[in-house]
Design brief:
Layout lengths: L14 H18 L7 H10 L3 E2 L4 E2 L4 E2 L5 E3 L4 E2 L4 E3 L4 E3 L4 E2 L4 E3 L1 E3 L8 E3 L2 E3 L4 E2 L4 E2 L4 E2 L4 E2 L4 E2 L7 E4 L4 E5 L4 H4 L9
Parallel strand pairs: 1-4, 2-5, 3-6, 4-7, 5-8, 6-9, 7-12, 8-13, 9-14, 12-15, 13-16, 14-17, 16-18
Antiparallel strand pairs: 10-11, 18-19
Length: about 190
């Protein structure tokens, strides 16, 4: 039988991490969130000051919650939509033209429930080029959403998503291949497979 009053777990985060997060919280409240919707360049600049790797053309809405900017990488023309929660305790990376739609949660951490201390377990998330995470999706730690994949609205993703597929549900399951229309097919990157 487990003890009734287990000791609280020690903090997993360094003093430096805590101070930077507190400072980011102040900057986010005063300068990031109140910025006008169109001020994507301003928000990119603020995130870069805190160590984020953000390329030109990346879109970050002012209502996005970012836990640790230094663990965020966004390629050209990628997007974090309104009210996305980017819980990037571990690195989170968005590829070129990758989109994470409104109210989604990218959760790069969990706890080891086999221990009463519930130690933090972190693992990076990657949303590859041309992938689309639709509205209100949960993406768990260690997940890679493959190039060109689509995750349907309100899905929960606990395992990697294959490139150029459509998945949906809780847990997310394969629905069909993503086939591009003729007008878009020429834009799809072709990778050489041996």
């Amino acid at each position: 039988m487990p003890p009734t009053n287990p000791a609280p777990p020690p903090s997993s985060f360094s003093l430096r991490n805590k101070v930077l997060r507190a400072l980011w919280g102040v900057v986010c409240t005063i300068l990031f969130r109140p910025s006008p919707k169109f001020a994507h360049g301003w928000r990119r600049l603020l995130l870069r000051v805190f160590g984020a790797r953000i390329e030109r053309g990346a879109v970050i809405h002012p209502s996005v919650k970012i836990w640790a900017p230094w663990n965020l990488a966004m390629a050209k023309d990628s997007c974090l939509g309104p009210a996305v929660d980017c819980y990037n305790v571990a690195p989170i990376e968005l590829g070129r033209r990758a989109t994470v739609s409104q109210y989604s949660l990218l959760c790069a951490a969990t706890h080891d429930f086999t221990s009463l201390q519930l130690p933090l377990v972190t693992s990076p998330i990657t949303i590859q080029d041309f992938a689309w995470v639709c509205a209100d999706v949960f993406v768990g730690p260690g997940v890679t959403v493959g190039e060109g994949a689509v995750v349907g609205a309100r899905s929960s993703v606990y395992k990697n998503v294959e490139p150029w597929t459509v998945v949906a549900g809780n847990p997310a399951r394969f629905m069909k291949a993503r086939i591009l229309g003729d007008a878009d097919e020429h834009q799809r990157p072709h990778t050489h497979v041996e």
